[in-house]
Amino acid sequence: MITLIARLKAKPGKEALLAEECVKLAKHVRENEQGCLMYIPHVSTENPAEIIFVEKYTDQEAFNAHGQTPYFKAYKENSAELIDGNSQLQFMKELI
Question: Cα separation of 96 and 67, whole Å?
Fold first, then answer.
């Protein structure tokens, strides 16, 4: 099992557009990726420019497949001008 926390920060004035792209991506992932068990974008209650994805995949193959989907590639292209800096990725391993 692979768990990932991805943190993004929207450029000033781009918060709503980035949130919209994230919601659109999540819908595609949920409808098409059987190996993805959880894919939920959140917006920080303390900082509306910060979006945090909580993702869970059955295995490395499912995670790798996610990055190769046409809708993920489109998201990367569409969101590039909306994100301030680099995304922070934190991979985690379940204890139980």
Answer: 27
Q: What is the DSSP string of 32-68?
A: H-TTEEEEEEEE-SS-TTEEEEEEEESSHHHHHHHHT
Give the model's pLDDT for residue 17: 97
pTM of the model: 0.91
Instruction: Tell me how far apart the alpha carbons of residues 45 and 43 are, in angstroms, rounded to a whole number.
Output: 6
Half-sphere exposure of 96 (CA within 13 A, CB side): 0
Report pLDDT for 96.
84
Is residue 35 within 8 Å of 65, Cβ to Cβ?
A: yes
Three-class DSSP category at 83 = strand
Domains of the chain with bracketed CATH:
2-92 (3.30.70.100)
